[in-house]
Amino acid sequence: MTPAPDGRSLIPTGSGVIDAEHGAILDLLSVMTAGGPVGLAELTALRHEVAEHFATETAEMAVLTADRRERHEHAHRSYLAGIDALLDTAGRGDPVTVDDANRLMLWFIVHSNTADTELVEAGRRAGDEPPMITMDDWLDGLDEADRDALLS
Length: 152
Ligand SMILES: [Fe+2]
Ligand SMILES: [Fe+2]
Prior knowledge:
The chain is 72% helix and 0% strand. The protein has 6 helices and no strands. The chain has one domain: Four Helix Bundle (Hemerythrin (Met), subunit A). The protein starts with 15 loop residues before the first helix and ends with a helix. It is mostly helical. Helix 1 runs antiparallel to helix 2, helix 2 runs antiparallel to helix 3 and helix 3 packs antiparallel against helix 4. The structure holds fe (ii) ion (2 copies). One fe (ii) ion (FE2) binds next to helix 3 and helix 4. This is Hemerythrin-like domain-containing protein. It comes from Azospirillum aestuarii. InterPro entries: Hemerythrin-like_sf.
C-alpha cells in the first residue's frame, strides 16, 4: 500500500486551535505508525482525541455551503467508523497492524491538508467581508432633498 507520510507532511491550516489539535492527534498516530502498540488503549485515546477535534471543526462549519459541510461531516463520520471497526478488532483480541495505523495516518494528513484547510480559509474569508451598511444608514447619509427624491 501507499506508505504513510510522516508528520512533516501535515501543513498548518493557519488556525491555532485546529493546528494544536492536529498536532496532538498526529502524536498519537506517529507512535502507532512507528511500530508502537496499537491496542484498545491507544485506539480509545485516539478516538477520544479525534471526536473532540471533529466537534471543534463542526462548530466552525457554518461558513461552508450546505453541500461542503455535509461532505466534510461525512468524511469525519467515516473516519470515526474506521476507528470503531479497529476498536472492535482489538476488542476481539485480533491484531491491529501497522498497515491499519498507516491508513489512519494517511487519511488524517490528506484530510487535514485539504478539507480542513478549506474550512479555515472559508472562515478567514467570511471574517474579511466588509460590514454591510443598512439602507437606513445609507439614506441618513444623504442630504434631505436627495433623500426625499429617492423616497417619493
Ligand atoms: Fe481536522
Ligand atoms: Fe475535518
